[in-house]
Fold TonB-dependent receptor.
Amino acid sequence: MKMKQYLVLCALTLLVTLQTTAQKITGTIRDTAQTAVPMLRLYLAGTQKHTVSGPDGSFTINNVKPGSYKLIATGIGYNTLEQAVTITDSITTLSLTIQPSDIGLNEVVVTAGRNKETLGTVPSSITIISGKQLREQSAITTDINQLLSMNVPGLTLGTNTSTNKGQTLRGRGMLIMIDGIPQSTPLRNGDKDMRSIDVSVIERVEVIKGSTAIYGNGADGGIVNFITIKANPNKRFSGSTDISTSGSLTSAANSLGARVAQQFSGRLNKFDYVVAGTYEQTGVNKDAKGQVIAPFQSLSQNENVNLFAKLGYNFNDNNRLEVMYNYYRTMQNSTYIDSGGKFGQRPIIGIVGTNPGDKQGTPYNHNAYVNFTSKNIFRNTSLNVNLYYQDFYTVFEYSDFYAPPGNSAITSKKMGARVNFNTLFNFHPNLHGDVTWGIDVLNDKTAQPLTDGRSFVPEMNMKNLAPYAQLKTYLFKDFLVKAGLRYENIRLDIPDYTTIKFGNYAGGVFVKGGNLPYEALVFNTGLRYTRFPAFNPFVSYSQSFSLYDLGRTLRLAKAVSNGSTSINIIETKAIITNNYEAGFNSNIGKFNASGSYFISTSDLGTSLKDVNGVAVPERAPERVQGFELTAGYQFLPNLSASAAYTHVEGKKDVNGVKTWLPTTRITPDKMTVNVNYSPLKQWDLGVYYIYSGMRKRFDPNPTTKEYDLGNGPVGDFSLVNLYTAYRFSTAASIRLGVDNLLNADYYPVMSQARVRTDSYIKGSGARFNLGFRYAF
């Protein structure tokens, strides 16, 4: 009997003990916008109890004894949260709100690591152009090339044309994307990828600088990702109407243009939507002297159309389905033709006339995606599945460069899938983080035909399968380490084709097609020290993989025997670029600054050289290096200023002789200064100064007295832009922007550097843009 009583007593004691030790704290943590915050460290002060918030902001701390505690939540980009907690019940449920810090590193970026993270957790240089900046500066110009170059250190100034030819990021090519959908055509680069969407449907722009392979082929200098607008979650139905007119201030005749943009947005229970449309007709562009600018690849007399829709459905707090579609069209309807001009002496101008051939421009650029997100698909793991499609067609100017003359075009169709997982881990209070892993699948079909049916570059059919993994971990609270790898597995199919005559190239070479395999394992790693906002340094190393402009090589095939050759003989090696970088961010009260020094190397080059009038790729080893500095200060609540300076330089090694890289690759020094002031609560002013320096590294050919392609001497120039807006109410406002306020008479960088008469074109003189906006 005593034995039974003893066993019962033991069982009761064990039960009470289990109940006591089974108590736990659970809950969710969100920011002030009520967005779930993952990767925050939560712990009970004075104990070893700790955890990390999950993808949906949820957290659990098990085996907590009854009593009173201080729960502390910390994370980069957020103020430390301290919450008093008393444990009495078996489960204590909390709903916490954490305040974003104001030290400048809490801004969320999605491109760098393929999932949401703050700037303070990324050991590399990133520039974010906010929606506010885009709204203000698009009142000056809607040319996305110019908007980017005014705001991104390391990016060459805009070309004042419909192309981004010669616009490099840190001296190398970049991968342009819309919501992660690649717009660039690296198999045959047409330099039309920046003008692929209208600024009215861009919410923000994320620029990741330095070589990276995280999104695949073509990001030697970095990535530019246009993030499209989202639905208004606070209203069932809302919208805005923007109407504007623009024109020349030097000579108004025929220069007036018009633009209208309409947007509707809202949320209905679990469903949200945003639809938008934009129509723009530009007038004739004129230089500082009132002369019509040549229509060659010009922004004059362009008709631009953009149609956009994004629909989303939230199954619950953790699962969401979203679809997006964007249509963009820009075509030139010029009543002028190119006339006169001589490089270094006088510019090409426009005179009234009819251009032969087909209209130049982009008849269509279709982009669409279906995106599914699950914040907690299984234990501590989120899932994102993205299926995307792009169909792009652009037509270049009519030219007698071809025999017979004609218009060339680029067609590109891409279909892809990205399956992306993010798994959190928490091994120890001083060792926790996450792993992003998954696989990319891409089919890219790109060709360069002539509009009359001839094939300039045959269709290249690329199939890419690339698994990847990216580790991010926090060591001893203040050290953040990132490391990752990506395995590129590419098969490129090229059919039999015969080259055509163009320039001084005779053509007529039969090329036996075939399959080109590419495999490469590329790496990245970085370290950031996050303890002191006043000095937040980082170092990083990263690689990129690129099939540089393969189409340009294919169209220049040389016969080996009997007027023919094989695809396997042509030089088609891929380029691996290495990027080394050290930098810092600094936030001291109202002052912020950043700086970085970088070195970029590759065994194969991407520059072009002129061979008998034809631009030919030069596959020589290259080294590019430079630095970027930025600073900003908030003088008053209504007065702020910022500045940025970029220096880039580079050389190539041709048979042991090191020579400067051309200015079509290396931007002259660039400085920008922005001042924003609000004299009244409803009145905003902005003045933007841009300085482009000199670059005169080359001498002319001693025999011809002419400069080689890309080696033209570049003089410096300065531009000043003005923005002002007045809000009559929360709904109605009027805006005025002036581009080139001081009417500077100048040649853009590429007009000077390319050493070609057909592109020796002046920049626009002073132009105005007057607009009215009504939101409801």
User: Anything to note?
Assistant: The helical segments are 2-21, 131-137, 144-151, 550-554, 749-753. Residues 10-21 have pLDDT under 50 and may be disordered. The CA atoms of residues 39 and 53 lie 5 Å apart.
